[in-house]
Input
Amino acid sequence: MASELRVNTLKDAAGNNSIATSFVANGSAKAWGHFTMSSTTPRDSFNISSLTDDKTGIFTADYTSNMSSVNYSPSTGGTHRDAVTEAGWVLAVQHAGSGADDMTTGELSLSAHNSSSALVDTVQATFQIFGDLA
Output
């Protein structure tokens, strides 16, 4: 049988530095991933059910548990494997919805561009999602 612990505030062992549990839950990443854009197998992830290679430089990460609305906050980062030939790249959120600025509650699309604005797959990508789960 599962147990349940109900508290409103967390404190350190000395009884100091209190924080509301709602702050901990709301401030935690709801999904994250680390992958190489040349593979659809994540190196590590949380709340990601699959990665899809849509085309060169564009990947989609599907959430295991959807976000409650499209008003969540994604952030991206990563490293480049070949800084000599592809210097000056950027990893960005690729809006996946039906409109130009739409995001969806069930997936995040990422795009990687080099300094010439060409899409490239040579990026080790990381992303984090903050917001509320459905």
Notes: The first helix runs from residue 21 to 26. The radius of gyration is 18 Å.
